[in-house]
């Protein structure tokens, strides 16, 4: 028997990167998974690859209507929701805090922060009625030990890290666990934006030099933590910022 047998999960931003790795591992471990992502072709292909235990829903997480539709589809298709992974996120290019346009600032907070508000509104009542649930919010080491040039992204992830703790305190009495997963800079599509320079071995080396274990994070690293925190083995773990960072934030 696999560790997530019989569980149902929603993973946002599941078409690629951390989200795709989490969705794959969840399915391998016996869960049924809704893959929610704005990228239709990539998300549909990923769901098809994972088989009958996966279903793709096109979802712009900054849209309340889209979030509500994803939750409705999950319940209708798989009967319940045990786990939500709020993984979808975006950043701005590494640059002066003064040159980030207001519209981009608003979009970053809509995708990284307000999306969790929308998801909570849609899914927490369902979890309360069942007396259990797991919510995992993908924050970042950027919200713990920020790098220069990413001020507005850093602050959005700081909000994710803190709201996860507050949700854990408020929802614990309903049997709902909430944790933040905080990866260090990783090998994803946003890597070049974080660096603010071309993705060359030389430029990567500058960032890797700040990580004691000597490499960037991998999607599989984040998926492993998202798996553990969703299992019954983590039944007494709630309200933590879980760095996946090779000791970057020490």
Task: Describe what you observe in this structure.
This protein has 250 residues and is an alpha/beta fold. The chain has a single domain, classed as 3-Layer(aba) Sandwich (Rossmann fold). It is 45% helix and 15% strand.
Keywords:
250 residues, alpha/beta, Rossmann fold, 7-stranded parallel β-sheet, 7 strands, 15% strand
Short overview:
The chain is α/β, with parallel strands linked by helices and 250 residues long.
Q: What sequence of helices (H) and strands (E) makes up the elements?
A: EHEHEHEHEHEHHHE
Radius of gyration, whole Å:
17 Å
Helix/sheet category: alpha/beta
- Structurally, the number of domains stands at 1
CATH domain class = Alpha Beta
Shape: globular
- Second-tier CATH architecture: 3-Layer(aba) Sandwich
**Remind me, CATH topology?**
Rossmann fold
| Beta strands, count | 7
Q: CATH homologous superfamily - what is it?
A: NAD(P)-binding Rossmann-like Domain
User: What fraction strand?
Assistant: 15-25%
Number of helices: 8
Q: Sheet bearing the most strands, described?
A: 7 strands, parallel
What is the multimeric organization of the chains shown?
single chain
**Strand order, largest beta sheet:** 3-2-1-4-5-6-7
Rounded average pLDDT? 96
Distance between the termini: 37 Å
Indicate the low-confidence ranges by residue numbers: none
Helix coverage percent: 40-55%
